[in-house]
Each structure stands twice: as C-alpha cells, then as structure tokens.
Write a structure and sequence with these properties.
InterPro entries: CR_Ser/Thr_kinase (IPR052059), GNK2 (IPR002902), GNK2_sf (IPR038408), Kinase-like_dom_sf (IPR011009), Prot_kinase_dom (IPR000719), Protein_kinase_ATP_BS (IPR017441), Ser-Thr/Tyr_kinase_cat_dom (IPR001245), Ser/Thr_kinase_AS (IPR008271). By secondary structure, the chain is an alpha+beta fold. 37% of the residues lie in helices and 18% in strands.
C-alpha cells in the first residue's frame, strides 16, 4: 500500500509538470491497423523500409503529401503519406512525425496504415495507390452528446456539400461550416481523398463515407476512415482557419508542442522504470537483516586508522590509470596503487557515488575490519569523503584462483601441492569465520574468483560485500537470496534461510573445481548434460575419479600415489560438502580435519541435490550472456545496469554503436535463422536497429544530439522524498531555462537532496536552448532509481547529484570522443593545436566562460577549423582554466582525425572541419522555424527510441537468454490483435465511470501487479476491474499475456475475461465479478471458515481439479498456471471455484516435454525442481495443487503454518501425522467432523490429505497427473499408492521462516504474495 501511494504521488506530481499543447497539428491517433502477413526477407525488407521512410520524409518537408517506392518483389516498400489541406506546413510536419514514429511498430508485418486527425500514412509491399475501398473501412463515433433532429439534418446537408466540393476540387479537399437552424450552434465538416486516386475513385470513396458517417448520428461527432479517404463532422470547431507561415506565435506553439510531447513520453519512461524496479526488488529488499545498522557503522569512517583521503588514493592509482586496472566485478572496479610509503594496495572503486547506500557500502567495511586471519584478505581502510566510495585492501600480486585453475596454460603453475595448500588455507579461513569470531560470519559467495593468492600462492578469502553475521544463540537467519548460481546451497536457494552449511556447500563445489579444473557453471558440453557435481558423483560411484583430474596436474609424473590419494580424498570431501541434506554436510572444522589428516576415515557421501532430474541443471547460455554484458572493453557495453549510452550522429569513438553490440550478442547466441522464427527476438532486433536509423536524421541548430550519458549505479535513500525533490528540481530548472542559458538548482535536505546544473553553450539562441534542454529532460528520468547522472549534448549539458558538485571540474568520467571519419593533413593539425591554446585564454576573458573560433587552415585554403569551448559558470576562473587546459591536451589525441570532443566534469570542447557553430542568436525568420520543426521531429523520435529500447534492455537484463528460447503458442504481435477486437475492447471512460472514478470503497484488494476494484456497468452487470500499476500499455509481453491466456480458454472453473482497455492512461483488465472473493478469506478465517462445510470444500477441490485438467490437457496448447494458491481461487455466489490470475501462466506445444523460464510464483507453493532451475512442466501445478489440498483440509496456510519459529511446515506436519495414522488431529476445527453421524466425510478428508502428499512428492515423475488426481478424488474405492517424502522433509532449514512471512503480510496485505525475481545468474 505504501509503495502504491508513493507511485501514485510520483505520477500525479510529474503529470503536473507537463505543459499543455493546443494541438493545431491534430496529431491524435484515430486508428491504426497492421497487416497479418509477415515480411518475406528481413535482410532485404529492412533497408527498403528505411529508404522508403527517408524518401517520404523528404517529400513531406517540402509538400504536404507524397508517395515513395523502394525495392522490388515481395520485399518492396510502397508508402503514401498525406496531411489534410487545412494544416500549415509546420503542423503537417508535426503530425507526420507522430505517424512516422508509431507506424514502424507494425514490423515484422509487411504493411499497415494509420489515421490521425490531421494526416494519414500507409505502407505496403505492393502498389495500393488506386485503392479506395477495402474490408478495413470503418467509422468511429464519439457518443458523448446526443443531438436533436435539426443538428442531424444539418450534418447530412454539410456532408453532401463536402462530397460535391471535394470531388470538384483539384486538391480533393473540402471543409464546411454550417449553422444549425437559427441558433448559435454550428456543424463543422472535413472531407479529403488521397491524391493518388482518380476523380471518380475519390467521389466513390466519399459517397461511401457519407453513408457510413450517418450511422454516427444522433451523436455529436463522427469520423470515417476509409481506404481512400477521410471524413469527419463535429459540433466543435476543429478546423484550422488558414495555413499560416509567419509570426513568432507559431514558434512558441511549436516549442510548446515539442515540450509537451517530450514530457509525455518522459512520464511513460519514468513510470516504466519505477514499475521494473519495484517488480524486481519487491518486499525482499526490506527484510534484509544483518548484524549491523547504518548509523553505528558510519562511525568507522571517522576513525583515522581506517579513513583515507580521496586525493591520496587517486594519486596512488595514477589518477585511475587504465594501466593499473586489475579487474572489474558486479559492484566496482579494482585498481593497483602504490602509497607514498611504498606499500602496494588494491583499491576497490565502487560504481558511481554510493556513499549514501550505507547498508551495502558499510557492510564490507564492518565485516572485514572486525576480523583478522592469515587466510582472509586484509582491509587497510576506506574513503567516502570524495566523489565516490572506495575500499583499500592489501595487494595480492597473483590475482584470484580462477585465473589459474580454469586457464589452459596458467593452470600448470599450480601443481597439486600448491592446490592442496590453497584448499587447506581456504578451509582454515572459513573455520575462523564460522567458529572463531564474536559473531558467526557466513560469506555467502565462496567461489574461485573470491579466493585471492599472494606472492607464495597462499589463499586469502576476499569480497565480503554479501557476508552476513549472527549470534551464537541463533540456528539460522532469514535473508534475501544472494550469491552465484552453481555455488548456492539448495536449502538457501529455496527459502533464503541461511546457516554456515551454505558456505560448506559452496566450498565443496570449489574443491571439485580445484581438482578438476572445470568451472561448475560451465561444465556442460551440451545443454542438458551433467553439472560438475553430478560428473564428480558419477565418477566417484564408478571408482573412476582419476579420469576427471585436471590434466595440468600431470599426476602421472609423480613417483608415488600420495598426491593421487589426496586428490581422490579431496573429491570425496567435496561430495560430502555438497550433499543435499544440510545436516549431513560436515562443519568446516571437520572438513579441515578430513583434509589435513592422512588416515582420517571418511563417511560415504549421499546424493548431491536433484541428482536424478535433468531439469535441475543450469543453462550455460545465461552465464555467457552475463559475461558479454560485463566484458571489459571500452567499445562495448560495460555493465548495462550502470551505464546508458545513446546513438550518436558522429561515427567517432567506438565504430559500432552500443545497440549494434547488443544485436551482435543476440545473433551470436541464436542464429539469424532462429531469430526470424522468434517474433520476440525479431522485435528486439528491429527496435535496436531500425528505429535508431529513423530517429537519427536531425540537422537542428539546437545541436540536441546526445553524445554521452552516465547514470549513477546506486539507488536513492527514500522513494517519497527523492521523487518529490527530483520533480521539484526539474520544475525549477525548466523555469530558469526559459529566461537564461543556465540553471543552478538545489532542492531538499540530506541524502535525498537534489543538486542540478544545466547549461546551454553560448552560441545557442533561446529557442534552440529550450529545445536542447527538452532533450535533456526527456532522458534524465531514465536514470531513476539511481541517485544522479550527467548528460552531454552537442548544444547543452546537465548534471544531477545528491551532493554539491558545482565547483568540481575533473573526475574519472572525463573522456574524449573522436570522429575518425577523415584523416587530415599536417596544416589542419597545426591550425587546430593553435586554436586549442587560444580558446583557453579567450574563454577566460569572456564573462560567460565561452569562446568560438573559425580559422582558415592556411592562406588560400578553403579548409577551416571550427572550435567551441565552454566552462560551466559555477566554476571559479582558476578551475575553468584548469579544466580547459586539461581538455585542450586531451582533445589533441583525436588528431589527425577531422573531429574531436572532450566531455569533462567542468567544461566542454569541440573542434571540427565542418561548421557546426551558430552564426548569431536569431529570433525570427522562416529558416529558424524550419530548423525548430526538424529538431522537434528528431527529439520526439529519439525519445520514443529511448523509451522502447530502455524497456527492452531492462527486460533482457532481468530475464536473460532463457526468455529468448521460450516457445509458447503466442507472441506479442499475435496477442496485440486482441485489443483490436471490438468484443473485448472497453473504453477507459466506461471503466472509470463503472468504478466511481476508482472510489476506495469499491477497492477489493491489491496484488503484486495491480489493484482490483468492483464496478457496475451501465447495463447493470457487476465487474471486477484489475487496474495495472502505472501505464503498462507499452509493456506488451506483460499486459497482453494475461489477455491472451484467459481469452483463449473457456471453462466453468476458470474466471472469465470480459474485456480490456489500453486506450486510456493505464492498462486495465475486466473480469466477471465473484461476490464471495477468494478461498483464503474463508479457510484461513476462524469464523468465516464455518461457512464452508466439508461438502462445500470437497466440491471446491473437485472444481479446481477439473479446471486444471482443462488447462493441462484439454486446450490447443498446454497451459501451466504457475501460481495455484488459495488467494487465486475465487468463489461465486454458490461457492463454485474459479481459477484466477493468469499473469504468470505459460503455454507450450504438445511436442515439448518442458519449457525453460525465469522463476515466478509464490514461495511455499513452487515445486523444488522448478524453483531450482526454472524448467517447467505441469507437475509444478500439481505440486501447488497438493499444497492447496492440505490447506483446505487443515485450515492452515503453508507459508505461516509454524507455531514457533523453527517448527515444521504444513507439508511435514501432514506427512508426520499421515505416517502415524493421526490425520484427524490436523483437521480444521471449523469442519466439526465429530458432528457428522457417519464416517464418510472423515474418510474423504483423509483421502484428500493422502492425495495432497502424493502431489507434493519430491520427484516430479511420482506426482500424479491432474486427471489421475481427479479419478482418485471421485472414486470411493480407488486404491492409492503410498506417498514418498515431501522435499526437504528432514531439514528445519528448508522451511520458510514465519517471521519473514509475517513481514511479507504486513507489506503486502497478502500472505501469499507472488515473487517474480529469482531468475538471474547472480543474486544481489
């Protein structure tokens, strides 16, 4: 509830910032339709489409209509665009900009058309220019006001006049304004044909339109959108008086439209970012409990023995010289440094400024500074006094263990003796952490990359960022899942309850890696072969362990077998440490004895986890994608979660734009032929490739091209305060920029304070400055929820932080961008160097810190050098000079190339052989107006590209490769068609009215994705309205999914979808209303539970079973619900059950045994094989159904069934009572079984518990199908097999912590809130 309120507040505040537009361009979209047929050849189709769009764009800038043809055959592109004749040239271009932006969304289909209130556009792969009628012809009525007979007669007459006039007019256009009777009311009519038609075709089209539009009467407004013409009538004057081309008034309107457009898209971007952030982190982040608190730990930073000055560390690393860079991880970059006293240090430079993220930064300081051991890396100090947070460690020259054991040649450096000592050292370090400190410390991320080696290859455990500590009197702690897949213990991965045995498991994996030289996450030679743990287990069972020894150990060279015996023993110890049952894993002190003593007897290991299930193995592609996204290459995307780059007009810097890099990764992982089969992948490719091509055509004087943008990688302290301060800061900045070229703003207090600096370069006019700033304002919200960022454009700059940076002029992010398209001669280089020296002095003489230069390369030459330099006006003269001097030295590194830029913390500098400078600051003339329009088109297109691309990049990052190979029966385009079905589509205003404008009294509940309201339609039908958080209409894969699944099925035990709406400001689903709410409201309530007798409960069970059988077996494609639980079972007036909430459902074809998917569902109801690795079958639903059966019989929810913190779960409780023949003891008291005269109901209830245990067996193959479960339930004398153990039955650590669940209830108001974020290769 609290998050929902914060989100609503943020949206309201941001909306208040949006400027208004008087919309003379009439760029509202009336209707858009895409053809059903897909393109024939993507290689040919794409360049033809782009070329056709470019030709149309050129024609629309000089004329208000045009046609274009590019290509031949089935991949040809025929285009037509036309503005209605009452639009001015400027308004026409703005309307066309909207059409051009939206219509590419039809890809990969081979055609489409879009009707706006001011223009029309159509694209096909055949010549359609003479068509004037077709099956898609339709009318659109606005039935808000019912008009009288006189109005209707006047409309009929005005439409007839318009048909006659347009047919005779050379422009095929007519407009009519006719008074109704003798009153003050008038009728306004517009009619226009496409100019590619013949006169007779035009007349036929308009006559058809006049008959169709009469069907809108008696309503006050109507439109006809035909294949060859457009017609509209209204009682409101929508017509433009005359096409105007002069006066500054229009310039102001253009600016207003641009700002309005940009701001609107910004709202969508911000909302999308917030939704993704909340879905990803949810409640789990709030319940993280360590042994520290931020205020207590912050005192450490004032301790002189730990505190380093930032300047000291910067000097030690050579100002972060790339030569000193040792490596990069998920949280920061590590550099080698040398202090003034000669000590070598390792400096961990955390990404961006996270000095206010105390829980993350202080944790590592606290953990490692309180311990001291020869096998733990030593923390020398830290620094957060400068612009970033820094940790200083002892320097270990041999880097980390993974650099050796996984390397084909370096592995030979580590013989068995060294490796054995490393294993012993790591074990000793863990014994110290687990047993020999005041508070037991669990590392949580033991792996080869976190074991560093000193000069003599002694092991030291590093990276305590994820470590947790707890007191001796606790058996475990509950915490958010964090670590690396492949190294995390199954009981910890399942429920987040943490003991030292989680580290023991990770250590066991590490031991196997050291002996074999095989990395666990990369051990599979094919997609479904065994993991390293399984390989080791199989070889151990067959007494063939020697076959998996690392060849680099060269065991055959040793004269005796002592080393071989030690290695075999290490394998056995590794298998003991990776046993599924945590109680069987030895503590680290016992492990150390096993390893150190030659004659120590070892027990036989039991199976590693999920030994018999192929479904439990990790997918290697996911890990490889993670490597691509973290590749340390300055010309690739370093870390998608921390940096945002945008396409540049210049081809300098890295020759391949970042979007093409991502596309290259997709192509590398999934062949182009496979991409064509996957609509999802194709959509991503087209968004990353075609849209940037369409958006990059801008030549505006505002120079609004984005050169580079940085976003801080760590998050703000408080949602409510930060958003409020941010919005206020943007509002004040906008006000200041309207009257000045610079804005310096400070809003708020403490860690959520916002400091903003925005500045336009001195040669921009006021109008150009506003347009450049509009681009900045569009992009900056995409940094949310980061605490700051900076953006450089060719005409302006802006920076946002949560600390005062106004006097900073240099930082590690200072960079140079070269445009290496043309290699210039010596004379050009010399002239450029001279100008670089002169601009430093020239800028300081100018009060604006700005200078521009234009110099001939030599006398008699036509070649010139153009230079611009500017400091931010918040700097002192000395700081400005220092910044420009640094820039002048940096920019010369771009020579001999024809263009270069320097993007420094305190200044900007650029040179070029092309004149990019504005000559004078002008305020009039049609030339500037044309440029403004061109910029408006560029700004709008670029913003749309950003919004779409940003959403896709976040989606890829979260779901990784596994989403690309999902093979369902649906795709986004196919699902989108549903919204065009008039039987499903509801108007937003209709829904809003039905719910009483979202009246709180009509609120039924709230879940992880939206709020549900009760509503009453005008015909009296009661409905349930699911109002999705924010505006999800651009998140098609999420919104359309539930529409597609539930609209494609029909069964008495499935909730019925009545329709949906995405035409308003948010996405909405409309369901049938079920008055008795959900099952959990009864079975878990002490009083309401009595309303459900056993007879009713048994019928509910049968109904749910029948619904699941239908989904699993009786639909065209098998559907898996993935979230069966009591809160998703709704009850109608007669308590008949209906399965609801299909937002997580997945479908797949009959020929697939399973699908791989990101993990989603509710802890306590998810099958163990699915929870571990995300491979999904119907048996996952069977498991959830089994849990639900036990809940219905006992009245106890599985997730909070424990009466004390560590007692058994509902599954283990039912299992024990079943084995002891005491099932009756756990019956829900509300059933009052003792009151029934016969034992029939009691026998049924015992049988249901029996079936529930059969459905929750650990092995999926032993669980019955839903049809078998129904037969068991319905047949009285059906003999039932004995159930085997439920998963993790012997381990308390495998059960959910009730305290955690209570927190979950307090946050969500729902004890079974779904989780959807346990899906990536590393958990943080």
């Amino acid at each position: 509830m609290e998050k929902g309120a914060q989100i609503l507040t943020a949206l309201i505040i941001i909306t208040l910032l949006l400027p208004t537009s008087n919309g003379e361009a009439r760029s509202q979209i009336i209707k858009m339709s895409c053809d059903q047929q897909l393109e024939n050849n993507i290689t040919l189709f794409m360049p033809n489409f782009v070329g056709m769009m470019e030709q149309l764009g050129s024609k629309m800038r000089t004329s208000r209509n045009g046609t274009a043809v590019v290509g031949t055959g089935p991949d040809a592109n025929y285009g037509l665009a036309q503005c209605y004749s009452d639009l001015s040239s400027q308004d026409c271009i703005l309307c066309y900009a909207e059409a051009r932006t939206v219509l590419p969304g039809c890809f990969p289909h081979n055609g489409g058309r879009i009707y706006l209130d001011g223009c029309f556009m159509r694209v096909q792969n055949y010549s359609f220019y003479q068509e004037y009628t077709g099956p898609n012809d339709t009318f659109v009525c606005k039935n808000t006001t019912r008009k009288n007979i006189e109005f209707q007669d006047t409309v009929t007459q005005a439409v007839m006049n318009a048909v006659t006039d347009a047919s005779r007019n050379g422009e095929y256009f007519a407009r009519e304004e006719m008074m109704v009777g003798g009153g003050n009311e008038s009728v306004y009519v517009l009619a226009e044909c496409w100019r590619s038609l013949s006169p007779s075709s035009c007349q036929a089209c308009l006559e058809n339109a006049s008959m169709a539009i009469s069907k809108c009467l008696p309503w006050s407004e109507g439109r006809v959108v035909n294949t060859g013409c457009f017609m509209r009538y209204s009682d409101t004057d929508f017509l433009n008086a005359v096409p105007v081309t002069s006066s500054s008034n229009n310039r102001g309107k253009i600016i207003a439209i641009v700002v309005s457009t940009v701001s609107s898209v910004t709202l969508v971007t911000v909302a999308s970012m917030i939704v993704v952030y909340i879905l990803k982190h949810r409640y789990i982040q709030k319940k993280r409990k360590g042994s520290y608190d931020a205020k207590k730990l912050s005192k450490m930073l004032h301790d002189s023995s730990l505190n380093f000055k930032y300047s000291t560390v910067e000097k030690a690393t050579g100002k972060w010289d790339e030569y000193n860079k040792l490596g990069q991880g998920g949280f920061g970059t590590v550099y080698k440094g040398v202090l003034s006293d000669g000590r070598e240090i390792a400096v961990k430079r955390l990404f961006f400024n996270n000095k206010f993220r105390a829980a993350d930064f202080y944790n590592e300081v606290n953990m490692i500074s309180t311990v001291e051991h020869k096998n733990l890396v030593r923390l020398l100090g830290c620094s957060c006094s400068g612009p970033e947070s820094i940790l200083i460690y002892e320097y270990l020259p041999n880097m980390s263990l993974d650099h050796f054991i996984f390397h084909a040649t370096k592995g030979r450096t580590l013989n068995w003796e060294k490796r054995h000592n490393i294993i012993i050292g790591t074990a000793e370090g863990l014994v110290y952490l687990h047993e020999n400190t005041k508070c037991r410390i669990i590392h949580r991320d033991i792996k080869a990359a976190n074991v560093l080696l000193d000069l003599r290859f002694r092991a030291k455990i590093a990276d305590f960022g994820l470590a947790r500590s707890f007191q001796d009197d606790k058996s475990h702690i509950s915490t958010a899942i964090a670590g690396t897949l492949g190294y995390m213990a199954p009981e910890y991965l399942a429920h987040g309850q943490l003991t030292e045995k989680a580290d023991v498991y990770s250590f066991g994996v590490l031991v196997l890696e050291v002996v074999t030289g095989i990395e666990n996450n990369k051990s599979k030679t094919t997609e479904y072969t065994d993991s390293l743990v399984a390989i080791a287990w199989n070889h151990f069972q067959q007494n063939k362990v020697e076959e998996i020894f690392d060849p680099n150990l060269m065991m055959h060279l040793y004269p005796n077998n002592s080393y071989k015996k030690e290695a075999i023993k290490a394998i056995q110890v590794g298998l003991l440490c990776t046993q599924e049952d945590p109680s069987l894993r030895p503590p680290m002190s016992t492990v150390l004895k096993m390893l150190a003593k030659d004659n120590e007897p070892l027990p036989a290991p039991s199976n590693p986890p999920f030994m018999d299930e192929d479904a439990m193995e990790l997918n290697e592609i996911t890990h490889r994608l993670h490597q691509y996204f973290t590749n340390d290459n300055s010309c690739s995307i370093a870390t998608v979660e921390h940096s945002h780059f945008f396409p540049r007009r210049s081809t300098g810097g890295c020759p391949t734009p970042d979007w093409w890099v991502i596309g290259a990764i997709l192509v590398k992982e999934k062949r182009v032929a496979e991409m064509k089969e996957s609509t999802h992948t194709t959509l991503i490719f087209i968004t990353l490739v075609i849209l940037p091509l369409l958006a990059s055509k801008s030549n505006g004087d505002a120079r609004a091209q984005v050169i580079k943008m940085y976003c801080d990688g760590h998050f703000h302290d408080n949602d409510t305060l930060f958003i409020e301060n941010f919005v206020r800061a943007m509002e004040i900045t906008s006000t200041q920029m309207q009257s000045s070229h610079i804005a310096k703003v400070t809003v708020g207090n403490g860690p959520n304070k916002n400091y903003v600096l925005t500045q336009c370069y001195g040669d921009l006019s006021t109008q150009d400055c506003l347009l450049c700033y509009a681009q900045i304002r569009t992009f900056f919200p995409s940094c949310y929820p980061g605490i700051g960022g900076r953006i450089y454009l060719d005409g302006c700059f802006s920076r946002l932080q949560n600390y005062s940076f106004f006097d900073e002029y240099t930082s590690p992010n200072d960079t140079t961008v070269c445009g290496n398209t043309t290699r210039k001669g010596v004379l050009f280089q010399e002239a450029t160097r001279r100008e670089m020296v002169s601009v430093v002095t020239g800028a300081l003489r100018n009060a604006d810190y700005f200078v521009r230069r234009e110099t001939l390369v030599s006398s008699g030459s036509n070649d010139s050098v153009y230079v611009l330099a500017e400091c931010w006006k918040t700097l002192s003269p000395s700081s400005c000079r220092a910044c420009l001097e640094n820039a002048s030295m940096s920019i010369t590194t771009c020579l001999p190339w024809s263009e270069g830029r320097v993007l420094n913390t305190g200044c900007f500098m650029r040179y070029s052989d092309t004149n990019f400078l504005n000559t004078v600051t002008t305020t009039s003339g049609s030339s500037n107006r044309g440029r403004i329009i061109a910029i408006a088109v560029s700004v709008f297109s670029s913003v749309v590209v950003l919004a779409v691309t940003l959403a896709i990049v976040l989606y890829i990052k979260k779901r990784r490769y596994i989403q690309h190979k999902r093979k369902g029966s649906y795709d986004a385009e196919e699902m989108a068609k549903i919204l065009n079905d008039i039987s499903l589509n509801f108007k937003y205003s209709t829904i809003e009215k039905a719910t009483g404008n979202w009246d709180e009294s009509n609120k039924l509940g709230q879940g992880g994705h939206g709020t549900v309201y009760k509503g009453v339609l005008s015909d009296g039908r009661e409905i349930a309205v699911k109002r999705l958080f924010f505006n999800n209409k651009f998140r098609a894969t999420d919104f359309y999914h539930e529409v597609n699944i539930i609209s494609s099925v029909e069964h008495k035990n499935l909730v019925r979808l009545l329709g949906c709406s995405c035409s308003g400001p948010e996405s909405i689903l409309v369901y049938e209303y079920l008055p008795n709410m959900s099952l959990d409201h009864f079975i878990f309530d002490e009083t309401k539970g009595r309303e459900l007798s056993w007879e009713k409960r048994f019928k509910i069970i049968i109904g749910i079973t029948e619904g699941l059988i239908y989904l699993h077996e009786n639909t065209k494609t098998r559907i898996i619900h993935r979230d069966i639980k009591a809160s998703n079972i709704l009850l109608d007036l007669r308590f008949r059950p209906k399965i609801a909430d299909f937002g997580l459902a997945r479908s797949f074809q009959e020929n697939n045994s399973h699908i791989s998917t990101a993990i989603a569902g509710t802890l306590g109801y998810m099958a163990p094989e699915y929870l571990a690795h995300g491979r999904l079958t119907e048996k996952a639903d069977v498991y959830s159904f089994g849990v639900l059966l036990l809940e219905v019989v006992t009245g106890m929810p599985n997730n909070i069934s424990k009466t004390t913190e560590y007692t058994d779960s509902l599954l283990s409780t039912a299992w024990k009572h079943f084995n002891e023949g005491k099932v009756v003891e756990i019956f829900d008291p509300n059933l009052m079984m003792h009151t029934h005269p016969n034992k029939k109901f009691q026998k049924e209830a015992i049988k249901v518990v029996h079936i529930g245990l059969l459905c929750t067996q650990e092995a999926p193959s032993l669980r019955p199908s839903m049809s078998a479960a129904l037969q068991m339930l319905a047949t009285d004398d059906e003999p039932l097999p004995a159930p085997s153990n439920p998963p993790f039955i012997d381990e308390n650590t495998m059960e959910l912590n009730s305290i955690t669940q209570k927190l979950l209830i307090n946050d969500n108001g729902d004890h079974s809130s779904s989780i959807v974020h346990v899906s990536s290769a590393s958990f943080t």
